[in-house]
């Protein structure tokens, strides 16, 4: 689907997953289109139960040029989803933190389709599309001895648009300072938060709804999209605190709450 240079189509596919299409390039970020998490052991019985079926079948994604994964957790880098996508879109590339590449190869994805991503440098994926990895604090920032981050977000500078997908991260001073160098048109932020009781069952968390709303307003996102709140009730604080914060403290800050599978045409006007 070709759109004008200041337009972008965004499809929300659940959890933090989105598909972005612009100028005949299609990019999926953290696609999770199975119930793999529900089958995991190690958590209390019934803790992980999807609230809705995957809105897209991975075998129908035949036009993807790139899949970006932010880290190795199954709701962000799901083998059952990625294997099917790799077959359905045989020319698709896969970018992820360096630590994730062995797992992607183990899924049967050829090494020449993989790109190790780190904050050290941007990836010029295509003409007019630069992908800059951004550090993420999934409760903490984790790096190997060479400085490669285990958790990433991504800044996509795509023609005259600037898109930020945070992946899973807390809000830290370092993150605010990093993002302050960009004028962000669309930002996808997790809002599920964290707490000691989730930590006790092995669930690491993210910024909460109030922090996400404040970050978007502080950095003057054109539009903020909350994610990571609607699929698993036991790892969510709901959507109401996010909306209330924007209306009570940041009236005028634009936002969009997606329904699973919904597609939005974003047209930059500022």
From TrEMBL:
It catalyses: 3',5'-cyclic UMP + H2O = UMP + H(+); 3',5'-cyclic CMP + H2O = CMP + H(+). Pfam families: Lactamase_B_2. Signal peptide: none annotated. Residues 51-229 form the Metallo-beta-lactamase domain. It comes from the Bacteria. Keywords: Hydrolase. Counteracts the endogenous Pycsar antiviral defense system. Phosphodiesterase that enables metal-dependent hydrolysis of host cyclic nucleotide Pycsar defense signals such as cCMP and cUMP. This is MBL fold metallo-hydrolase. It comes from Paenibacillus chondroitinus.
């Amino acid at each position: 689907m070709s759109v004008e240079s200041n337009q972008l189509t965004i499809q929300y596919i659940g959890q933090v997953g989105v598909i972005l299409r612009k100028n005949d390039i299609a990019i999926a970020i953290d696609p999770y289109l199975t119930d793999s998490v529900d089958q995991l052991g190690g958590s209390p019985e019934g803790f992980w139960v999807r609230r809705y079926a995957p809105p897209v079948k991975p075998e129908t994604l035949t036009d993807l040029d790139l899949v970006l994964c932010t880290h190795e957790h199954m709701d962000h880098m799901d083998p059952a989803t990625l294997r099917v996508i790799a077959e359905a879109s045989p020319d698709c590339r896969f970018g992820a933190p360096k630590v994730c590449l062995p797992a992607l190869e183990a899924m049967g994805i050829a090494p020449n389709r993989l790109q190790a991503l780190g904050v050290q440098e941007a990836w010029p994926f295509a003409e007019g599309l630069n992908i800059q990895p951004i550090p993420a604090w999934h409760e903490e920032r984790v790096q190997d001895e060479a400085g490669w981050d285990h958790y990433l977000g991504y800044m996509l500078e795509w023609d005259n648009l600037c898109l930020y997908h945070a992946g899973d991260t807390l809000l830290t001073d370092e993150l605010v300072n990093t993002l302050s160098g960009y004028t962000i048109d669309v930002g996808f932020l997790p809002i599920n938060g964290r707490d000691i009781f989730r930590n006790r069952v092995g669930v690491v968390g993210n910024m909460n709804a109030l922090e996400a709303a404040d970050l978007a307003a502080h950095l003057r996102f054109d539009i903020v999209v909350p994610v990571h709140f609607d699929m698993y009730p036991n790892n969510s604080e709901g959507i109401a605190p996010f909306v209330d914060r924007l209306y009570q403290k940041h009236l005028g800050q634009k936002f969009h709450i997606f329904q699973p599978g919904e597609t939005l045409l974003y047209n930059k006007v500022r």
